[in-house]
Amino acid sequence: MINRREFFGKAAGALAAVSAITSGDTLCAQSAPSTVPPSDQINLGIIGPGSRGKSVMRAFLRVPGVRFTALCDIYEPRFDEARKVTGEQTPAFKDYRQLLDQKGLDAIVVSTPPCLHEEHVVAALESCRHVYGEKDMALTVPACDHVVATVRKTGKFYQIGTQYHYAPWYQEALRRIHSGKLGQVTHIYAYWHRNNNWRRPVPDPKDPKLEHLINWRLYKECSGGLLAELGTPRSEFRKPRIRSLTRIRDRDGRRGLLERWARNAG
Ligand SMILES: NC(=O)c1ccc[n+]([C@@H]2O[C@H](COP(=O)([O-])OP(=O)(O)OC[C@H]3O[C@@H](n4cnc5c(N)ncnc54)[C@H](O)[C@@H]3O)[C@@H](O)[C@H]2O)c1
Fold first, then answer.
1. Among 104, 121, 130, which residue's Cα sits nearest to residue 43?
2. What is the mean pLDDT of residues 167-179?
3. Could you say which of 34, 87, 213, 254 has the lowest number of CB atoms within 10 Å?
4. Closest approach atom of ligand 1 to CA 114
5. 4-161 has CATH 3.30.70.1450 classification
6. Of 134, 137, 217, 234, best ligand 1 pocket probe by most atoms within 8 Å of the beta carbon
7. E strand or H helix at 126, and its extent?
């Protein structure tokens, strides 16, 4: 059983993606022990408790003391679905700004489609809450830069959720690479087999807004496509661990945002 001080203490060590505990001036006060309320409960809010969001909720709720005290989604059926996960009548809002206005929230989970990550993550950080956000950080390099600048400005933690990052087989592969057993790695071939359809059923297929909301993966304005959706966790593996690899292509040899990102960040 860990208390909230240990939770955030551990988080500080574990937040590998982008974290800013800076010694300089930041917009938000740091969580020094003196500011930690006596309660050991950690109150989370979630923006976008869809498919992934509810899985993340279940995972967080396995940590003793964690509770979701606010939900936000623009699609109302999600409220009942998410309340089934929390097991209580958790307050729910249709506008994320209302959620961020709630007092007592320690951190925000952002699990909306990627085209909204910049807006939601930046707003949550600027409300002086820590953020756990689903991948991808954002869909363009300037949007990612904005998120990183906001992390620095606010001094809050921001972790990006990436499937398998901590999986034992990933860790073992990295251990073998770093031990030098494989020599210099010059090429990684990563793939992902998918047996189900990305198109999800829509209650009213004639409603184009609902179609875009539910099937956002199929539309360019909200999705980075296969390379971003499925390629990120696979190529994330190479960076920052294997810095010499800078080319990322999809199956058809196309370069994309990921390669640009690798060139800029590598
Ligand atoms: N880490 C992983 O392994 C993993 C796996 C699957 C998905 N994901 C990521 O998780 C995110 C969500 O994917 P998903 O499959 O759960 O999608 P989803 O469509 O099931 O869930 C997104 C939710 O956001 C809601 N939403 C949309 N616009 C909103 C707004 N303006 N305000 C509030 N809520 C809004 C939707 O109604 C929906 O409930 C994506 O970024 C995806 O890439 C990550």
1. 104
2. 82
3. 34
4. 41
5. no
6. 134
7. helix 117-126
Query: Ligand 1 mean position to 34 CA, how many Å?
Result: 36
Residue 82 buriedness (CB in 10 A; 0-12 / 13-18 / 19+): buried
Compute the CA torsion angle 241, 246, 252, 257 (nearest 10 deg).
Answer: 90
Q: What is the DSSP string of 242-261?
A: -TT------TT----HHHHH
Nearest residue (by CA) to ligand 1, atom 31, is 74
> 32 or 17: whose pLDDT is higher?
32
Q: How far is the CA of 192 from the centre of ligand 1 (A)?
A: 20
Which residues have CB under 6 Å of ligand 1?
47-48, 50-53, 72-75, 78, 96, 111-114, 116, 134-135, 161-163, 213, 216, 229
Q: Which two tokens stand for residue 193?
A: 């087999």
Q: Domain-by-domain residue ranges, the chain?
A: 4-161, 168-265
Interval between CA 113 and ligand 1 midpoint (Å):
4
pLDDT tens string 134-148 = 999 998 889 999 999
How far, in Å, from the CA of 198 to the mean position of ligand 1? Answer: 13
What is the pLDDT, as a whole number, of residue 228? 81
